[in-house]
Amino acid sequence: MVVLKLRFLLVPFFTSVMGEAQYVMQDAALMNYIDRRFLSLEKRLEKCNQDILDYVEEFRDFSKTIMSRLAVLNNHKTEVKTEVENLLTRVERAQRDIDYFGSVTDSNTCIEVDEDLVKQQLFEEAEEKRKLKLMLNASCDYMLAGIKSLKIVKKTGEMHGSWMKDPGKKHTKIYLLSGSVNNVILEFENILTFMESNHTQKARRVTLPLPWKGTGHIIYQGFLFYHRYGSLNEIIKYNIQKRNVSDQMLLPGAGRIPVYQLSPATKIDLAIDEQGLWAIHAEPDTGGNIVITKINHMTMAVEHTWDTSCSSKDAEAAFMACNTLYVVYNFPSGGTSRIQCVYDVLGAVNTYEIPVLHFPKRQGSHSTIHYNPKEKQLFAWGDGSQIIYKFQTMQKV
Q: Are 308 and 314 in contact (CB under 8 A)?
């Protein structure tokens, strides 16, 4: 009897325990399912974040590619514009030649030349020469006869650069433009300050908004004229005192090859003499010979251009003095610099009778040579040194 009662008590107990165990198993399965779903969502979110990062990086790379290609296209646009202008100039020259030959040539080669036509041509040539003499002040009638002395003012160590005074101003300031690509001018109160060992600490720094290319820049009447880095043939006119770009121009035909074979960084060399601003450059169309262009420094307009017989091969520098171009040559390995090509734009110099002029007491090469018409001296940069040359003169033949 007791056993029977005990059985009736245990059956409900075990039934209750088994029911609770079944609920526990169902809850565990549900938790496991929820956990798997969360893991799946986390993986998807992680993949989504990674995809977003990949897309952002890909977009950045794409933007850089587009910007670089746009920059190249912009350069091509400038080059094409320059080429078109150069082509138009050459077409105009060819048309003038065709018109000339057409006016003096007939199908009958035995016909006599019209004397009136010859007189007209001679008159036009004389008129052109007269205008050039008026423009260039023909009273400037001396030429270099020899380079007699030098003074090494300082040695900054930089292999390429320019240093100069402003011949159009009455102050004694010295300007240093170091390197073939840079945008900082150092201005010194005088040459003594420049010669001090800690000269950079006493210099006024002028930062240009656009960097220069090469070493052919010049300072004249408070303005820096230079070839803009990144351009084919753009010349910038920069106001040093006001610190802004005053004007700019494109020099037709320039910038495609170095003006001097031994100074390949310089594509356009700017110069000052008694007549003002000049540009010296070389063109493939002239066989690599040097071309001179007279520029109005106030309007930045081309006034006249001359094709010279001076080669850019083995040339390292050049300068203008009294309407005359003097080209300095050297050896590729360095040696004694010498002037052995001279070109007078007015034809007042017999270039075949001029002796070769050697630079005294130094072996090496020049990065730049600039003539200062106010002091009648040459400011040169040679092998990291800043040099002043004096010279002898004589009357033009």
A: no
Distance (Å, rounded) from C-alpha 7 to C-alpha 25? 27
Strand pairing partners for 186? 176, 205
Full residue range of the structural domain in which residue 80 is found: 1-94
- The CA distance from 212 to 214, in Å, is 7
The DSSP string of 228-253 is: BTT-SSEEEEEETTTTEEEEEEE-TT
Question: How far from chain centre, in Å, is Cα 198?
Answer: 29
Are 138 and 347 spatial neighbours (Cβ–Cβ below 8 Å)?
A: no
On whether the CB atoms of residues 213 and 267 are closer than 8 A, the answer is: yes
pLDDT per residue as tens digits for the range 180-212: 999 999 999 999 999 987 877 889 999 999 999
CATH number at residue 325: 2.120.10
* pTM of the complete model: 0.68
Q: How far apart are CA 253 and CA 95, in angstroms?
A: 18
**Same structural domain for residues 80 and 150?**
no
